[in-house]
Amino acid sequence: MAIDFPSEIASLQQTFSSIREVSDVEQLKSEVAELTEAAAAPDLWDDPDVAQAITSKLSHKQGTLEKLQKFDQRIEDVELLVSMGEDEGDEDALNEAAAEVEKLKSELAALEISTLLSGEFDERSAVITVRAGAGGDDATDWAQMLTRMYIRWAENRGYKVEELDTSYAEGAGVKSATVQVNAPYAYGTLSVEAGTHRLVRISPFDNQGRRQTSFAAVEVVPLIEQTDHIDIDENDLRIDVFRSSGPGGQSVNTTDSAVRITHVPTGVVVSMQNEKSQIQNRAAAMRVLQSRLLQLKREEEEAQKKDLAGDIKASWGDQMRSYVTHPYQMVKDLRTGYEVNNPQAVFDGDIDDFLEAGIRWRKEEEKAAEAAANQP
C-alpha cells in the first residue's frame, strides 16, 4: 500500500508544532547550561548519588533539546526526499522517505509524551511499592510477579534499579516489595501505575486446578531530594530494629540491622533490610518515609482541588487494570480501555503502551478538572 506522503508529512508538522508550543526551549537551554556547569564541578563525584542524578538529568535534557532543534530540519529533509523521489521516479528514495516518516512518527510520539510530564515531581526517580492483597498464596505470588514486571521494564530501558526492601511470604511470593528506579522522569512515567491490579488465572497452588482471582496494590512516590523540605519531628517516629530475613524466614544477617520506622501521626510505616548495616537501612528508610509523606501532602492538596472542581469521571480507585490468563489471554486497563492479548509479554516488562495511554488519559482528566473548576 502506497504511503500518502502529503498527509503523513502534514501530520508530522502539526504534531511537532503542538510539541514546540508547550516546550519552553529557552528554559530548557537555561537548565542545560546550569546542569553542564554543575557537572563540571571538580568535587562532583564526592557524592556519587548526586553526581549520577546530575549527569542523568543533563543527558536527558540535552537529548530533548537536540531533538527539538533538529526535528524541523528532519521534516524538511524528508519532504525534499519525497519530492526528488517522485520527480525522478526513484523507488529507493521513496522507500527511504517512508522509513524516515515512520521513524519520525515514533520519535515524535515519545517526545510528545515527555511534554505531558510537567508535574512538580515528574522528572524525579521513582520509588515503587507492591503489596499483596486478597488471594492468599496467589496474591503474594502476584505481588512478586508485578515487582518483577517493573524491574524488567526498567532494566530493558537501561535504568538502574535498587531493591530496597522485600517482605517474603511464608508460602509463595512476597507480602510487599519496594524498589527504586533511578532515571529522569521515572516517577512521572510510572505514577500512572498506582492502583489495584487484578490477576485472573488457573491457580498453581490449587490442586484442583480452579480459577483464582487475586489482587495487589501498587504505590508510586517520587524520590526525595536534598532540596525538598519535609519537616519530620523525631518525637513523631517509632523506630524498631530486627534481623533481616530471606525467603522462607531463613536468616541472612546475624545482627539487628533491619529497620522499621513508623510515623505515628500519619501511620506511615517503612521497613528497610536490604542494606548491610543498621545505619544504612535507617538512612534509606528515612528517604522513603520522606518521599511518602511528600506524596501524602500532594494527595491532600489534590483532594482539596477535587472538592472545589467536583467529581470528574473515573478516579484512581480500585482495580485499574486486569490481567487474565484463563479462560482467555488479555491485559486491559480499565481507565484508558487499552488492551493487549499477550499477558506474558506484559509480565516481562512490555508496558510502554500502557504507560503512554495512562499518561494521555491522566492529562485529559486534568483538563476536564480544570474546565469544571473554571465553570461559573
UniProtKB/TrEMBL annotation:
<protein>
    <recommendedName>
        <fullName>Peptide chain release factor 2</fullName>
    </recommendedName>
</protein>
<dbReference type="GO" id="GO:0005737">
    <property type="term" value="C:cytoplasm"/>
</dbReference>
<feature type="domain" description="Prokaryotic-type class I peptide chain release factors">
    <location>
        <begin position="243"/>
        <end position="259"/>
    </location>
</feature>
<comment type="function">
    <text>Peptide chain release factor 2 directs the termination of translation in response to the peptide chain termination codons UGA and UAA.</text>
</comment>
<dbReference type="InterPro" id="IPR004374">
    <property type="entry name" value="PrfB"/>
</dbReference>
<dbReference type="Pfam" id="PF00472">
    <property type="entry name" value="RF-1"/>
</dbReference>
<keyword id="KW-0488">Methylation</keyword>
<dbReference type="InterPro" id="IPR000352">
    <property type="entry name" value="Pep_chain_release_fac_I"/>
</dbReference>
<comment type="similarity">
    <text>Belongs to the prokaryotic/mitochondrial release factor family.</text>
</comment>
<dbReference type="GO" id="GO:0016149">
    <property type="term" value="F:translation release factor activity, codon specific"/>
</dbReference>
<keyword id="KW-0648">Protein biosynthesis</keyword>
<dbReference type="InterPro" id="IPR005139">
    <property type="entry name" value="PCRF"/>
</dbReference>
<keyword id="KW-0963">Cytoplasm</keyword>
<dbReference type="InterPro" id="IPR045853">
    <property type="entry name" value="Pep_chain_release_fac_I_sf"/>
</dbReference>
<dbReference type="Pfam" id="PF03462">
    <property type="entry name" value="PCRF"/>
</dbReference>
<feature type="modified residue" description="N5-methylglutamine">
    <location>
        <position position="250"/>
    </location>
</feature>
